[in-house]
Write a structure and sequence with these properties.
globular; Na+/H+ antiporter like fold; mainly alpha; about 260 residues; about 0% strand
Length: about 260
């Protein structure tokens, strides 16, 4: 029951952030397309490494709370535009993750799962006073809801002996490499071959760092795994894969941005 309440709260916040992001359509186009590319590449890499596994969608979402948390270690050394780009990308990522759940896994959604995920996001999308709600709900989600959820559904179930299993390895590679390749390649291609441009204060090297941090994905990924995977052994492999992917992505992303931020 507690896990369901936490999931519901988190997805209400996702709905709020998606609706707020739609108020800035011009600002969200480039990060949104980068987010899409940053979801497709991990899925392709996962499928290539582990054909037939149903966990491909687990490789796709970004956990904004974790990524922003890693970014906070840099303090004032990081370019403020990096944080804004990461937040905008994550909003688009959350929206696309909901689309994936609704299109590809709707047959596996029981009534409870649908209410706690898609239903909660819809409620958040429709609520008034979004800016104030986000202001108050975001820190609650970041410092209370997400840590408790991750402990209940991930950290308390970790089995390190499964770290070299097929699903675990495929998930680590897909997230760590697929996210940064997809996001960076999309940003480069879109800014070179279309009229879309990065903010003046942001350069492509910093987008690469954002792509690395985007490999951190736990909360939405775990929700997708619980919906799509049929066996406990598969879910345990996903948990340990997400754990190591988050650590690797967070360390490399933070170090990369520390050396390449324009604020240096």
């Amino acid at each position: 029951m507690l896990s369901h309440i936490l999931t519901f709260t988190f997805f209400v916040l996702i709905g709020l952030e998606i609706r707020e992001g739609l108020n800035r359509p011009k600002e969200i186009i480039l990060p949104g397309l980068c987010a899409l590319s940053g979801m497709v590449f991990p899925a392709i890499i996962f499928i290539a490494l582990h054909t037939g596994a149903n966990a491909w969608a687990v490789a796709m979402p970004t956990d904004v709370a974790l990524a922003i948390g890693a970014l906070s270690f840099l303090g004032k050394r990081v370019n403020p535009s990096v944080r804004l780009f990461l937040l905008t990308l994550a909003v688009a990522d959350d929206f696309l993750s909901l689309v994936v759940i609704g299109i590809f896994f709707r047959s596996k959604l029981d009534l409870a799962s649908a209410i706690y995920t898609l239903g909660a996001a819809t409620i958040g999308f429709l609520l008034p006073f979004r800016t104030k709600l986000i202001k108050y709900l975001s820190p609650v989600a970041t410092f209370v809801v997400i840590p408790i959820y991750i402990w209940i559904n991930l950290l308390s179930h970790l089995n390190f002996s499964l770290a070299t299993q097929k699903i675990s390895v495929a998930l680590i590679v897909a997230r760590v490499l697929g996210k940064v390749i997809g996001i960076s390649l999309a940003a480069w291609a879109l800014t070179h071959f279309t009229k879309l441009r990065l903010p003046v204060s942001l350069d492509l090297r910093e987008v690469v760092g954002v792509g690395m941090l985007a490999g951190m994905g736990l909360t939405v990924s775990i929700v997708i795994a619980e919906i799509t995977l049929a066996t406990t052994p598969e879910l345990d492999q996903v948990r340990i894969g997400l754990f190591f992917a988050a650590i690797i992505s967070g360390v490399f992303g933070t170090l990369f941005l520390g050396f390449n931020s324009k604020s240096n």
